[in-house]
Write a structure and sequence with these properties.
By secondary structure, the protein is an alpha/beta fold. Helices cover about 35% and strands about 20% of the residues. A 7-stranded parallel beta sheet has the order 3-2-1-4-5-6-10, sandwiched between helices. Strands 7, 9, 11 and 13 form a 4-stranded mixed beta sheet that branches.
Length: about 300
């Protein structure tokens, strides 16, 4: 039987790549998003539906569908709008859970975030004792707690994946790596901080493979699992690497001040991803950056 999957946010960066992979597996794919996909993210054989998950009534577009799997990658991307961020990243999750609670789905994957940990010391181990400062992290953490509690009380088949910095071809140009690649390709200035922060960057194909592992893993139900590359690099080192590979651009260090709440190190403990999912990233940073640069050179 063909598996049927609903991807909330299927027109976004991770959602687009997940949808492509599911099509290769010959699955039936439905996307629910608030916006239409950009041309380079539009895929044939996908049913695109539209609606804001912040409002339960908008989920009525799903009434005539049955799914084996649901993956929630949706949410308001402008985190400066606190109200919309909270509504999409928490109320939206509550609405989805309410809708699918009695639908007999096999798995519900929630895309969490390393932002849930806030100022907790790295490497992060999965916990609810987090200290998020921003509304995005607070909303994601609240959703995580809600879903895990729902699993305990009503056996809702939820798994929360806490992603670290996901990057790769097709990411929106307003993110760190695409912004830097764009500046280097166009040989323009790139204002930056001092770059001493350390981050874990995860290639998009590895991010998708973790979702697919979690979907079919029954022991992952009711679990929170960190997903990262397991390698940390300073932003300064990453900037120098990308600039050297492309050849252009001018990095202006110290032009952007760090946020008061910005941790110097954001990195995961990945023991649960290895133990529960039998998963680990397979793409080196060098491979991932090369593929990413190749993509943006083609479209910029």
């Amino acid at each position: 039987m063909k598996k049927k999957i609903l991807i909330i946010g299927g027109t976004g960066f991770i959602g687009h790549h997940l949808a492509k992979k599911c099509l290769k597996l010959s699955w039936h794919v439905v996307s629910l998003s608030s916006k239409k996909p950009e041309n380079f993210r539009r895929l044939k054989k996908i049913k695109y539906l539209y609606g804001d998950i912040s409002y339960f009534k908008n989920l009525s577009v799903l009434l005539n569908y049955n799914f084996h799997y649901v993956v929630n990658l949706g949410g308001y991307i402008d985190h400066h709008n606190k109200t919309q961020t909270y509504k999409s990243h928490f109320l939206g999750v509550k609405n989805l859970a309410k809708f699918f609670l009695k639908k007999n789905i096999e798995s519900f994957i929630q895309a969490g975030s390393s932002a849930e940990y806030g100022n907790t010391n790295s490497p992060h181990k999965e916990t609810f004792k987090c200290k998020p400062e921003m509304i995005y992290g607070k909303s994601k953490l609240k959703s995580t707690k809600y879903l895990i509690n729902l699993h305990k009380k009503k056996n809702f088949p939820a798994t929360v994946i806490r992603y670290y910095q996901v990057y790769g071809p097709g990411q929106s140009i307003n993110r760190f790596i695409p912004l830097l690649v764009n500046a280097c390709i166009k040989n323009i200035e790139f204002p930056a901080s001092h770059g001493k922060q350390k981050r874990d960057f995860l290639y998009i194909e590895d991010a998708v493979s973790a979702i697919l592992k979690a979907l079919i893993n029954k022991t992952a139900r009711g679990e929170v699992i960190n997903i990262g590359s397991g390698r940390v690099i300073t932003l300064l080192s990453l900037m120098k690497t990308i600039k050297k590979k492309i050849g252009g651009g001018k990095i202006l260090l110290g032009r952007i001040k760090l946020r008061k709440d910005e941790p110097m190190i954001i990195a995961p403990n990945l023991s649960r991803s290895r133990k529960i999912l039998k998963w680990q990233s397979t793409t080196s940073l060098k491979q991932g950056i090369n593929k990413t640069i190749k993509f943006y050179k083609r479209i910029i």
